[in-house]
């Protein structure tokens, strides 16, 4: 780790007017009194914990090795639990209202008004995780809890941007993140992507050729990045690409917000069924080393605000995650929380902290390894379904998929009738995708150029029509238009659909691909 | 209840530019498909509930009659529990991951991404509560869950106000609410108060005499009100005053945000110990009728956004509450939540819902009656302590306390030395207060005009010096300066301190008043 200590003052000009106008903490002057032992405080508007109706809160939590840590032929047996009502292996945790030792988790503290930065016990746990797993490039970065990445991004963008400014985003990106900022007149500036997400050469071009007058806004000083299993495209940005993008951040004085919910869901390359080999268990160090690193690892100037969430590693309803960033940004983000969300929910903080304590650091690593395998099995199963339903031919990708092996789906020669259908030759693919190496999504391109009505209806219209046909047949998948951050369609020649494999059981995924195939073939008239 | 249906469109011009710019829900077009039974959805980015580590969550909750429902001589015995380790009477609740009946609370739903408006089961419970207890003046008001009143106010003010606008507030008001809006250049406009909070005549004067140029902003169209046990002054706005203020809202086209965390803590008038009579139990209807009503009861035009919270009725760490307002405002507030906080924490929603279901509506009413009594006992005890420590003489209030019985504290003739101290005659009070009828706070005025250094140091300096002396002696109370929404001090001749009785045990309250007395007498040189 570098001993470089970023001078936060150099980055101060990145703060928005709102962030600058936030007062220092009202508690600041009182801090020395608040820490005085034995001080009697009638200053706060605190209800008495005796009147909290919760005498204790407990949970039965799954043991860390509930799911296999390798893809060695084992499949997802969770449906068996539900089918036969069998009990998973669990362990009990309890948080009492009053703890014997003040350092132990207790509801009297967790359910009281508390620090917006979160319960100290949980703060310590996430700090250790961030330092161990992300290995930040400077020593004194700060971790601070937040109420989930959506809110954290909202606070981050309003801390960094003024109305009328722009944020650099991937050409296809997460719509909620855009909906968070556009009402404040902070506009997305799309950058072309390839199989690794945002292209560094395209980013350089946008920045170098920036014309403030033509664009109607100053050159953006913020990047919104989802570097692992990007939503919706499923792309993952490797370390070399990250270095190139970070170098541009240094060169053009840019802050990068790394929204990384899928970090542990790095499933690796998809292999056809017959080529899969049983994996061997990894040590924690091997596991960490096998994951594409965070931007924090190369952030020697404190330009990265990383957003972590428990939504994918525990549950979205926790509404809990944490920032890792430099102290100056952390302080402004804490002020923003104090006057809005305050601390994250106390049930969530204490139950998540208690789970992590019960599991221990090694247990949590084991849990994450299991999750990665489970989502890998689901990814593999969905792609296998496509391989069963269609003839999949791989080609080298171009444009958005340059450098990737693209899977092109064409009608499978099921019956002789297909051989004589001359509308579309057998080898013409009607859709394509790159199996993602991370995350929850397969991003499909449907080749509407092959559709008889392409020239009359256009891509957007066809995309909507097909979306409705899928839905009418019983399958809901995300239409590409949702993920277009601008209303620019001129260079879009395919329809796009985001298919999530994260929450479908095998039978559901199979049924979904059946419907997809039937509807798509009919729609494309092949 | 009136059958008047407010035309929400008439109020549309109150929406801020940000609120207007919020898109309609991205789910809107898909709604008809989402509700289709048997539809297979691979559209969302949902993790699989099988991988939520929480197999179930349980709590032992206090029974609804844990605390006496009347002040009939019973005192707060909660310290005995802790002293002897005795168990409170509790009942168990459990929320399983998967419920047998889909309408039952379950973690698979509660901990999944969900509607920003909250879990339907909890929504129904708060809707019933709002309708029954607040008895709104129009039929089709909407309830919607939120993540606590601080965040709800933040969302409300940004939904209603543009930068450069003002919000009408009481002369002394809640600092966090101000800190929520001032960084956006939405400025507080103080209105004079009396013993019932904001004065309607003063409000009319401010509105009638509004000079946009002199003030540098348009006439405000939003009031921030804490009508019950206002923070910090402890004042409560009666129905007649509410009608007068509401009439001004109609006349001057104003939206009123009612932040009402202390609604059930309506303790009633303070009576000296010897005058207290044992109360008799109230039916639920009598209990509801005994509470000052909400602004909703007179809101026939949909001008009120009411904010309710579970922070005082359950625990602040729930970070859970709800809006009651017209459908148009609710829709914009829901959009604001979707792109930031999303749904309130799922643990909180399901545990609070399960508690309310376990208790039943009558049980919850019984719980609230008990809370009211507990805080009444604490209020009484604190004032009793002042009566023991000082000679308290009551007078009719003027100015801020017009219409109130004011308690004036002077040095108690403990020893003969006091009789011959000529610096301050015995009858000269050194501080005053009005015992609050609601809430958690006693708002003290210290008569610095009697202080030898008044003319040289001034009020603000003396207030800070005395605050530090209290703290150095071991007592922390809120200095008045924190609650001054502007930096205007010209008409302030007393020092102010907010003393909270909500979270002190009897011994602590007694010790606090001992310190207060000792330090104040020394400081005032009496």
Structure commentary:
Chains A, B: This is Aminotran-1-2 domain-containing protein. Chains A, B: Keywords: Aminotransferase, Pyridoxal phosphate, Transferase. Chains A, B: It comes from Mycena indigotica. Chains A, B: Residues 108-392 form the Aminotransferase class I/classII large domain. Two copies of one chain form a homodimer. Chain A has 16 helices and 19 strands. By secondary structure, chain A is of the alpha+beta class. Chain A has two domains: 47-374, 3-Layer(aba) Sandwich (Aspartate Aminotransferase, domain 2); 376-523, Aspartate Aminotransferase, domain 1, CATH 3.90.1150. A six-stranded antiparallel sheet of chain A has the order 13-14-15-16-19-18. Chain A has a five-stranded mixed sheet with strand order 4-12-11-10-9, sandwiched between helices. The first copy, chain A, has a two-stranded antiparallel sheet with strand order 2-3. In chain A, a hairpin with an 8-residue loop joins strand 13 and strand 14. The longest helix of chain A is centred in the last third of the chain and has 44 residues, at 346-389. At the A-B interface, helix 1, strand 1, strand 2, helix 3 and helix 6 of A face helix 1, strand 1, strand 2, helix 3 and helix 6 of B.
CATH topology type of the largest domain in chain A: Aspartate Aminotransferase, domain 2
How many structural domains does the protein architecture of chain A include? 2
Which CATH architecture of the largest domain in chain A would you pick?
3-Layer(aba) Sandwich
Kindly, what is the distance between the CA atoms of the first and last residues of chain A, rounded to a whole number of angstroms? 58 Å
- Oligomer state equals homodimer
Rounded to the nearest angstrom, the radius of gyration of chain A is: 25 Å
CATH superfamily of the largest domain in chain A, by name, is Type I PLP-dependent aspartate aminotransferase-like (Major domain)
Helix content of chain A: 25-40%
Physical arrangement of strands within the biggest beta sheet of chain A: 13-14-15-16-19-18
Largest pleated sheet of chain A: 6 strands, antiparallel
| Number of strand segments of chain A | 19
């Amino acid at each position: 780790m570098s001993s470089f200590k970023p001078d936060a003052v150099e980055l101060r000009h990145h703060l928005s007017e709102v962030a600058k106008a936030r007062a220092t903490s009202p508690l600041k002057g009182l801090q020395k009194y608040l820490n005085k032992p034995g001080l009697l405080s009638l200053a706060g508007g605190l209800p008495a914990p005796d009147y909290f109706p919760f005498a204790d809160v407990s949970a039965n939590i799954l043991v860390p090795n509930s799911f296999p840590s390798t893809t060695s032929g084992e499949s997802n047996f969770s449906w068996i639990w539900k089918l036969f009502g069998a009990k998973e292996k669990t362990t009990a945790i309890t948080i009492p209202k009053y703890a014997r030792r003040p350092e132990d988790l207790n509801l009297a503290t967790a359910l009281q008004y508390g620090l917006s930065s979160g319960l100290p016990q949980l703060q310590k746990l996430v700090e250790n995780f961030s330092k161990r797993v992300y290995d930040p490039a400077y020593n004194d970065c700060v971790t601070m809890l937040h109420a989930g990445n959506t809110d954290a991004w909202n606070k981050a963008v309003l801390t960094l941007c003024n109305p009328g400014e722009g944020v650099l985003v991937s050409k296809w990106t997460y719509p909620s993140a855009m909906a968070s900022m556009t009402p404040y007149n902070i506009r997305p500036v799309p950058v072309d992507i390839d199989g690794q997400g945002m292209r560094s050469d395209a980013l350089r071009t946008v920045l170098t050729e920036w014309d403030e007058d033509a664009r109607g806004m100053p050159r953006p000083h913020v990047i919104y990045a989802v570097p692992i299993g990007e939503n919706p495209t499923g792309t993952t940005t490797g370390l070399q690409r990250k270095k190139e993008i970070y170098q541009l951040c240094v060169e053009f004085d840019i802050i990068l917000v790394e929204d990384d919910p899928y970090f542990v869901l790095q499933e690796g390359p998809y292999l056809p069924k017959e080529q899969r080999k049983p994996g061997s268990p990894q040590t924690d160090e091997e596991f960490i080393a096998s994951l594409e690193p965070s931007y924090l690892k190369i952030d020697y100037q404190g330009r990265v605000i990383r957003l972590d969430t428990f939504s994918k590693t525990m549950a979205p309803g926790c509404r809990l995650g944490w920032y890792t960033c430099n102290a100056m940004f952390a302080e402004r983000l804490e002020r923003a929380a104090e006057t809005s969300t305050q601390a994250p929910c106390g049930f969530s903080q204490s139950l998540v902290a208690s789970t992590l304590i019960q599991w221990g650091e090694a247990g949590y690593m084991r849990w994450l390894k299991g999750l990665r395998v489970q989502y890998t099995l689901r990814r593999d199963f969905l792609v296998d379904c496509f391989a069963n339903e269609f003839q999949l031919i791989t080609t080298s990708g171009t444009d958005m998929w340059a450098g990737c092996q693209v899977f092109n789906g064409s009608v499978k020669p099921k019956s002789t009738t297909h051989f004589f259908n001359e509308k579309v030759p057998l080898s013409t693919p009607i859709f394509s995708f790159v199996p993602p190496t991370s995350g929850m999504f397969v991003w499909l391109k449907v080749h509407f150029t092959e559709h008889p009505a392409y020239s009359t209806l256009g891509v957007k219209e066809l995309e909507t029509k097909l979306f409705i046909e899928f839905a009418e047949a019983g399958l809901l998948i995300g239409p590409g238009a949702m993920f277009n951050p601008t209303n620019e369609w001129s260079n879009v020649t395919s329809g796009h659909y985001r298919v999530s494999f994260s929450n479908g059981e095998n039978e559901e995924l199979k049924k979904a691909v059946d419907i997809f195939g039937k509807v798509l073939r009919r729609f494309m008239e092949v």
